[in-house]
Amino acid sequence: MATMIRPGLVDELQAYGAEDVSKCFNCGNCSAVCVHSEAPHVLPRRPMHALQLGLESKLRGSLEPWLCYYCGECSEQCPKGAEPGETMMSLRRWLTSTYDFSGISRLFYRSWRWELFSIVALAILTGIGFALFGMSQGSINHYDGPSAFLPSAMIHRFDWTMAVVLVVLLGINSIRMWRSVTRAADVKPSIGSYVAALYTLPVHFFTQPKFRQCDRKRPWLVHLVLMLSYVTMLVLIMFFLREMAAGPAIDWRVHVFGYLASAGLIVAVVLNLRGRIKRDSPQHAHSHESDWMFLVLLLTVAVTGVLQHILHRLGLDAAANIIYIVHLMGVVPMLVLEVPFGKWAHLAYRPLAVYFARVQEHANEAVARGGATEPAS
Amino acid sequence: MSARKIGVYVCQCGGNIGDYVDVDEVVAQVAKEPGVVVAKTAMFTCSDSTQQEIVQDAHEQGLDGLVVASCSPKLHTYTFRDVARRAGMNPFQYTQVNVREQCSWTHTDDHEGATQKALRLVRAGINRTRLTEPLEPIVVKTTPKSLVVGGGVAGLRAALGLAQVGLSVFLLEKEPKLGGWVAGFAEMYPHGRDGRALIAELEKAVRSHPGVTVFTSAELVAKSGSFGNYQVTIAIHGDQLETIQVEVGSIVVATGFDTYQPEEGELGYGLDGVMTIAEFKRMVEESAGALEHNGRPVKTVAYIYCVGSRQGEEVDDPNTYCSRYCCNAATHASLQVAGKPGKVHQYHFYRDMRTYGTFETLYAESLEKGSAYVKYPDGEPPAVERDAKTGRLTLTARDLLSEGEEVALEADLVVLVTGMVPRENQGLTKTLKLPVGQTGFFNEIHPKLRPVETVVDGVYICGACQAPRNSAESVASGLAAVSQSAAILKRGFAELDPLVATVDPVACTWCGECQDTCPYDAISMEQQDGTEFAVIAKTACKGCGGCVPVCPAGAIDLQGYTDAQIRAMIDGMLGVSCS
Q: Are the C-beta atoms of residues B75 and B102 closer than 8 Å to each other?
């Protein structure tokens, strides 16, 4: 069955950041220099060409954009200036929007105004909500204790509710990703293949070993620091919020981790922001509006988190409470909008892509051995 | 004993000959032949030092004949003729013996046999040389006028060029108007100049030049005479047919090409919306605003390249050549489309992009303007059909750049990028005896060194009648034909090899056999004192020798290869001692 060409797909991708795709004349230098380009995953050349032609159905099920970590080597070697690295990046944005059932992702990536408006609106709603809630049951002058403005138990419940909602949203989109991928695959993997490949998920979620294979190691290291810091902070907040918010004495059992994670977050975010401003490397040469919003949100959240902590320890509870609200005004849009619909969704899609790739490999090996798998209909 | 003094040089050609032929043995044997006063071997006879040595030997020994046994006469005939001349000999008393292509290279497995064969070949050469007579080149006075056949861009420019060097020019155009294909083009690549304006400019210059006489609706119908002085008959189709005769020294053929005409059903040709590149270009140029077809805006255009070019065994009598201009024309057309209002998606189904030289920028620009390229496999062009359900033209092809993935495209227009084919021109081909190559285009003598000359002396070819070419290349070859014409016509005379046939009028009984067999119309009948005999125009004779064996009276001999020389050569090869 012939793959239908959809003219204009490449133009559509412009909104996602793909600018110079049409310059590509298919020399394949990009794939020659890419450490991740290995059969059956030929990148960036194959998705690049598929995009040029408009082979939309092929691209929708392609894992290749997720197997690229944007070291930028390909863009540097490209003789035509076709920016294959940025094309992969824009394809990841586009894929994120195709996985998303709600259409919000598509809306945000195509219109930064909508994304900004939504962030601001949600932030304001969050601020008003928490302020009203605080005033209704506590005192602005109390950070913790029985009359606390925003008691940790309540925030804890709120966090867990939000977490469940996010997991559900991201879960639905991940299932849609899986459907796109399996639809495009030649072989239908058995349950055994899915089980056998499971080990890749935690490994690639926590350490990104493929990212580390790239010739440039620094981006991987900065990303690792950012990711581990965030995970540490997430664990603290989800499980040790009471200890974190108690005070004014410092509980070193949790705060030592908190300080390390805060420092890691701020350093990594600042490095990335500086890189994007200075365009110091190929992967920072092009910044989509969504990249800026993500980093600015993260920086806001990290700085306000640190600030409310300091204010609280200084005994300035009213100020600490106000900054806490500002902090939450950053946290809620960042998590609610970025995790399921935005840049942050890659926390699920990247490990899943590596996982699906391994599943397919396992299934293909099984077919090669004449194993019990059924071909895709 | 012979009174001749012949020098024999047997070449080793590095090891090309020496590794298989015992050249010392050959030299030792031929040194005993009557008339041979010098017999030597040389590592490379064509080298400067050996040439010097031959000249020196000739002066010291008073040589009057030279035999060089080395490679094919195609390689070094002129080299050693010149050596002979420098050595004080007549250049036509030298004989080339081919002991490389005809001996060492063909008998690498039999050294003894190769040596024996070389010896026989050299003996034959010596025997021929012994009977040589000094010959002088034939000097022909030339008419300082030129005929240009074809009034396209190449012919027009050639006519103007000939006139500018001071020759009288007759320019012939079959159509009622001058200009050929280019007169129908609007914007041309790579400079965006208007073809119509270009032709108008050229036509004005040609028509206003006093040295050029233009005949339109005119054809060349007959040619007689010989090199340097041809009488040509021109038929002019007006209200009534008129014929005139003119005398010219050279003829420049610039009859151009035809476009490949796809057959009904070939790649969907005949379906509404499927057209050739020529038809498409006209459509693009005639549409003022956005591109429209049947009143509807054109959103998607598909080009199929190599239509009628580079054909394989799948068609009878395939056009195996690349038409060369079409990749450029199609990418250029896509740029014209991209310059129009409204977004048009353009897909190029190609085999290999051959936007050679500076035209690469057309390809690069078309890519940047958003054209997408699909590489289809040789012999598997896209299938084009009209979808019964959607009513749209649908192309299906395998894309080699997507690992052979089959892709399908719905398009509003399908453009068949058709190539050039040789023009049907049998009348002219026959009249001028023009050589036609395997591809059907006219053939030059040598593609690199004699690119516009034909085997018919004084008849030159240029432009796309010779091979697929664009207008710039056609004009360049037209000007090459100008310089070649000027080379023979401006001097007032030309020299020809004297290796031509001669008739003994006493022995000749005029049966006409020779006239029938001559491919160059060089033989005519003459009467004197009541007897009829054949006369050979030595300026028309090419020395092919075809007339010699058909003469029942044995009255014809070929200068340089007389019957006596041929017999002597056979004797030499058979090892029979000649008297």
A: no
Burial of B241 (0-12, 13-18, 19+ CB in 10 A): exposed
Task: Tell me whether residues A54 and B408 touch, CB distance under 8 A.
Answer: no
Contact call for residues A69 and A211 (beta carbons, < 8 A): yes
Strand partners, B301: B346, B413
Distance CA B37, CA B30 (A): 10
Q: Which residues of B touch A (CB under 8 A)?
A: 299-300, 343, 345, 347, 363-364, 367-374, 396, 399, 401-403, 405-410
Which residues does chain A have with pLDDT short of 70? 371-377
Does position B490 have pLDDT exceeding 60, yes or no? yes
Helix (H, G, I), strand (E, B) or coil at B169: strand
pLDDT at residue B318, as a whole number: 94
Exposure pattern of B413-424 as b/e (b: 16+ CB <10 Å)?
A: bbbbbbbbbbbe
Show the domains of chain B with their CATH numbers. Answer: 6-135 (3.40.50), 145-256+423-493 (3.50.50.60), 260-418 (3.50.50.60), 501-559 (3.30.70.20)
Comparing B288 with B461, which gets the higher pLDDT?
Answer: B461
Whether B218 contacts B235, CB under 8 Å? yes
Q: What is the pLDDT of residue A371?
A: 56
- Is there a contact between A55 and B402 if contact means CB atoms under 8 Å apart? yes
Mean pLDDT of the residues in chain B? 94
Tokens of B496: 């020809």
What is the torsional sign of CA B321, B322, B325, B326?
Answer: positive
B155, B159, B154: which is closest to B213 by C-alpha? B159
Report pLDDT for B64.
Answer: 95
What is the Cβ-side half-sphere exposure of residue B293, based on CA atoms within 13 angstroms?
A: 21
Confidence band, pLDDT 50/70/90 cuts, at residue B487: very high
Q: What is the pLDDT of residue A372?
A: 52
Which residues from chain B sit within 8 angstroms of residue A4, using beta carbons? 407-410
**Amino acid (one-letter) located at A67:** L
CA distances in angstroms from B485 to A98, B143, B457, listed in the order given = 70, 11, 10
Give CA B468 to chain center in angstroms: 13
Q: Say whether A53 and B347 touch across the interface (CB within 8 A).
A: yes
* Contact assignment for B408 to A3 by CB distance below 8 Å: yes
Q: State the number of CA atoms in the 13 A half-sphere of B104 facing the CB.
A: 23
B60, exposed or middle or buried, with CB in 10 Å at 0-12, 13-18, 19+? exposed
| Two structure tokens written together for B200 | 């108008």
Rounded to a whole number of angstroms, the distance from the CA of A28 to the nearest CA of chain B is 10
Q: Which two tokens stand for residue A238?
A: 């989800």
Confidence of residue B579 (pLDDT cuts 50, 70, 90): very low
> Residue B577 above 70 pLDDT?
no
Helix intervals (H) in B440-494: 471-489
Say yes or no for a CB contact (<8 Å) between B367 and A25: yes
Prediction pTM value: 0.84
Share of chain B above pLDDT 90, in %: 88
Helix (H) or strand (E) holding B96: strand B94-98
Q: Is pLDDT of B578 > 50?
A: no
Question: Taking CB atoms and an 8 Å limit, are B402 and A49 in contact across chains?
Answer: yes
Q: Taking CB atoms and an 8 Å cut-off, how many pairs form between chains A and B?
A: 67
What tens digit of pLDDT does each residue of A30-72 get? 999 999 999 899 999 999 999 999 999 999 999 999 999 999 9
A342: its two tokens: 């935005």
**Complex confidence, ipTM:** 0.89
**Other CB atoms closer than 10 Å to residue B575's CB: what's the count?**
10
CA B173 to each of CA B13, B183, B216, B255, B420: distance values in angstroms, whole numbers, following the listed order: 52, 13, 5, 9, 20
Residue B425 pLDDT > 70: yes
- Are B409 and A5 an interchain contact pair (Cβ–Cβ within 8 Å)? yes
All residues of chain A having their beta carbon less than 8 Å from the beta carbon of residue B371 are 22
